[in-house]
Design goal:
- The complex is a heterodimer of chains A (330) and B (306).
- Chain A has 330 residues and is mainly alpha-helical.
- Chain A has one domain: ABC transporter involved in vitamin B12 uptake, BtuC.
- Chain A is built from 13 helices and 4 strands.
- In chain A, the strands form 2 sheets. Chain A has a two-stranded antiparallel sheet. In chain A, strands 3-4 form a two-stranded antiparallel ribbon.
- Chain A is globular, with a radius of gyration of 20 Å.
- Chain B is mainly α and 306 residues long.
- Chain B has a single domain, classed as ABC transporter involved in vitamin B12 uptake, BtuC (Orthogonal Bundle), CATH 1.10.3470.
- Chain B contains 11 helices and 2 strands.
- Classes of the chains: A mainly alpha (330), B mainly alpha (306).
């Protein structure tokens, strides 16, 4: 149990650090750090989503960019309709308008991504191993190329959101307030995931990763468990996508590309697969890398590659694993 | 739309399919024999194209460039295998995906560092630059015909190598039971390096051939890599025959889809809508094909190794 307490202490320090960042940024007179931290928090959220499927369920999805992008496009499309005062669509005589209200955008992003994830998951989970990796990639590519080829919402050029969407009358354009919103969401989702992990569902999911036959033998169908995990995982990543679109006030097919899927996977791996705070650490490292090395050399991706290679070859538990030691009773 | 136009598109699809075959043959061999997912295969395509462009630029000969693409890509492949890939055979697929993704970052970054972000110049050789007349019906690019010819030659060569030679016998044996073949005294490590280098050389060749009609630049291998994965998943991972069938299928469906779908939609929809729906659908056609095939046959058309 000693190692677990180290991980627990580490998690607490991360939360405190994230809480302190706005104050540190103001003290250093570098308000840009808040935006940087917001990016970390949002990308971490996307990673937390993937980590649920990948870390706990062993479902190596190489297509989570699809859900990240869907969340982004929901935010972008709703906002653009609202700002241009165009009708979204008419269904059974009822007219649907766009909106700039985050409290409408988020549930819709969750709903749409859940529906898409049920569809993708239902078919993908019939395959295993490398085929699962490839079919999730294929579905994501489908959506990516569709977004490029479909001209209504900007096609290849993407879609701008001119004013950041609204949240309960707060000034969301204030970096501090937007950071607060993202931070609160991340913490809530982390709490939810830690509850899930220790629930019956979480145990069943981890059992599905370790030994499907045994799980089936005690009377639980692995398929339903894995599909549920896949869908929840997709919804979390889509929520992150909606926030990311709002952060940049821009969505483009880039959010849907397979590089994005790779990057979300990198957050999870750099931090430590299956660790609650792994994606937070991973996303933090990634952004630090991008920002500092990117400032020094335009070839920062080369060094990121070297670090990633070293982590995969020599530090298999990720950074959290290095600090907190290996998980017992895996 | 005339029959001649349709024929021309069919040839284009065939040429695209042959290029995809060159790319996917190595990918599927490496998976079949070593059980490894190699995302860095697209990097070797890029390396081949750069080698060809540089040597062709220095010597003025496209053919020397083509030879260089084979040699340099094979050497790069062997280097990657010995340096990194070798450590991944015993790992799970996740580690393989990540480590080879890291290789993409490293190689793309290094290439951009060395050669800059601008595309290099590579031209179609003089002798193949004029179209040939086919059956008095249409003028068709002789260079594209040349690519089709290379594809068929490589396919036959690979068939001969795998089915008829001692090396091929070892490769097949390595794919079905690696412990057994090692116990029989075959140097499995060298065999793996050889197979990897062979796949790399073919990817490099594909990159050089296509570099002359598209642009030679960093990142050129990315989209081709994904297509090659679609091909081998459709064909059945590990099967060369499957890769050949899958490559032709993907090449033809993609090319014909882009050509025909807008026409078909125009029959029932106004031209504007038809063009955008047709365009959007045709760009995802091969992914739909892949999903449908995997749903019907979860291990691809031709399941390798029994």
């Amino acid at each position: 149990m000693g190692n677990l307490t180290i991980e627990y202490k580490l998690n607490i320090s991360i939360v405190l650090l994230l809480l302190a960042i706005p104050a540190i940024a103001l003290m250093l007179d570098e308000p840009f750090y808040i935006t940087l931290a917001t990016k970390v928090v949002i990308l971490a959220l996307a990673g937390v989503g993937l980590n649920l499927a990948l870390g706990l369920g062993g479902l190596i999805s190489f297509g989570h960019a699809a859900f990240f992008g869907i969340g982004g496009y929901i935010a972008g499309i709703l906002a653009s309709h609202s700002l241009n005062a165009e009708l979204m669509f008419t269904l059974a005589g009822t007219e649907f308008d766009g909106t700039t209200n985050m409290l409408v955008i988020w549930p819709l992003a969750l709903l749409v991504s859940a529906l898409v994830a049920v569809f993708i998951g239902y078919f993908s989970l019939r395959t295993k191993g490398v085929y699962f990796i490839m079919i999730t990639l294929a579905f994501a590519q489908m959506i990516y190329y569709f977004a490029i080829a479909w001209p209504a919402y900007g096609g290849e050029d993407g879609l701008s959101i001119y004013v950041r969407n609204q949240f309960m009358g707060l000034n969301t354009l204030d970096p501090m307030i937007f950071y607060g919103i993202c931070f609160t969401l991340l913490m809530s989702v982390l709490l939810l995931v830690s509850k899930l992990k220790n629930s019956h569902f979480g145990s069943a999911l981890q059992a599905a990763r370790q030994n499907e036959q045994r799980l089936a033998a005690v009377g639980i169908r692995p398929f339903g468990i894995k599909l549920t995990a896949f869908v929840i995982s997709a919804m979390i990543t889509a929520l992150a996508g909606a926030l990311f679109a709002d952060l940049n006030r821009f969505v483009s097919p880039d959010m849907l590309s397979w590089h994005t899927s790779g990057e979300i996977m990198i957050f999870v791996i750099l931090g430590g697969v299956g660790r609650l705070f792994g994606p937070v650490v991973g996303a933090g490292l990634f952004i630090l890398f991008e920002y500092y090395l990117g400032g020094l050399t335009e070839h920062w991706a080369l060094f990121l590659g070297l670090v990633l290679l070293a982590v995969v070859l020599f530090a298999r538990g990720g950074l959290v694993g290095l600090i907190a030691g290996e998980v017992k009773h895996d | 739309m005339t029959a001649i136009l349709l024929f021309e598109q069919l040839l284009n699809g065939l040429q695209f399919g042959m290029m995809l075959f060159l790319m996917s043959a190595g990918l599927t061999l490496v998976f079949g024999v070593m059980g490894l997912i190699n995302l860095a295969h697209g990097v070797l395509y890029m390396v081949g194209a750069f080698a060809c462009a540089i040597i062709a630029g220095l010597t003025g000969s496209f053919w020397l460039g083509l030879l260089a693409s084979l040699i340099v890509a094979a050497m790069a492949g062997a280097l990657i295998e010995v340096g990194v890939i070798r450590k991944l055979y015993q790992r799970d697929h996740l580690d393989q995906v990540l480590a080879t993704y890291a290789l993409i970052l490293i190689f793309s970054g290094a290439t951009r560092w060395l050669f800059g972000a601008f595309p290099l110049y590579l031209d179609v050789p003089q002798i193949l630059s004029t179209p040939v007349n086919l059956f008095g019906l249409l003028d068709y690019s002789s260079y594209r015909l040349f690519i089709i010819g290379i594809g068929i030659t490589v396919a036959l060569g690979l068939y001969f190598l795998i089915a008829k030679t001692r090396l091929g016998m070892r490769i097949r044996a390595g794919a079905s039971d690696r412990e057994m073949i090692a116990a029989l005294g075959v140097d499995i490590r060298t065999l793996y390096t050889l197979v990897f280098a062979l796949g790399a050389a073919l990817a490099g060749l594909a990159g050089a051939l296509l570099g002359a009609v598209q642009s030679v630049e960093v990142g050129m291998g990315d989209s081709v890599l994904i297509l090659a994965f679609v091909v081998i998943v459709i064909g059945g991972i590990g099967s060369i025959k499957g890769a050949f069938i899958g490559a032709l299928l993907v090449g033809l469906v993609d090319t014909m889809g882009r050509f025909l779908l807008p026409y078909l939609f125009a029959l029932v929809l106004p031209p504007d809508t038809a063009a955008s729906i047709g365009g959007a659908l045709s760009s995802v056609a091969i992914y739909i094909l892949m999903a449908v095939i995997l749903i019907v046959k979860p291990k691809g058309l031709i399941a390798a190794n029994g």
